[in-house]
Amino acid sequence: MRSKSVSGQWRTLLALAVAAACPLAGCAAEPDLDTPAIQGLPVALVYRGPASCDGCSEAAADLLARSGRFTVKFTGPDSELPLDGRTLAAASVYLQPGGGDDVAHARRQMDPYASAITDSVRSGGRYLGICMGGYLAGTVNGFGLWPGEVEQYSDSPGAEIHSTADTVATVAWRNHNQQMYFQDGPFFAVPDSADPPQILARYRNGAAAAVVAPSGKGRIALVGPHPEASESWYAEHHLDSTAADNCPGLDLITALMSR
Fold first, then answer.
1. Continuous segment of H or E residues that includes residue 170
2. 181 close to 256: Cβ distance less than 8 angstroms
3. Domain boundaries defined on the chain
């Protein structure tokens, strides 16, 4: 899966049009990434390497850039920045993108970095997990950042999706029906807590599809569908590309960074 490349000027104009029509909170216009205005912005790290999928890291990085909040850099074995405690401590947010279909295998691939990621969040960092990145936030085969269960939506009671094939899921995002690219994503069981999570989106059966929550001294944002998916992802699998919309992803970023 690969996102389309669009020039800075046209991306800015497109983002302005989308922001004007978007009913969700947090949808800001995309900046012109070629201007000096992004100099000095906090760093957002995106993992790139084993446990991520082809094009997922790049699409996630593009979503973060569209928020206008960050200078985006890649980290991990396939990147110039090592994924360790020092790198994470210098960043404002760390993003774990989508990956394969085997959570246990993905967790083993992330073993060299797991402690650094967990310690970073527990000490005040922010973690954004998309699809596999959401699974990896769980306590079973994960980093232990989300206290409840993280399981396949397609196996949950009342789910309308019963396949691991690439498809479109309809979620209620802030009570607004939103179609989103979906491929065997998780739902997030919400535990009883004195500081309950913010549920931004629910699947059709009511299960949580996107959440923001405290984790130690830090915060996490997790989403089952793919808010970073470009039109090319939909077209590749013969899905309705008009569903492609960055607004949910921008809203998720705003909610994560709001405290």
1. strand 167-173
2. no
3. 8-256
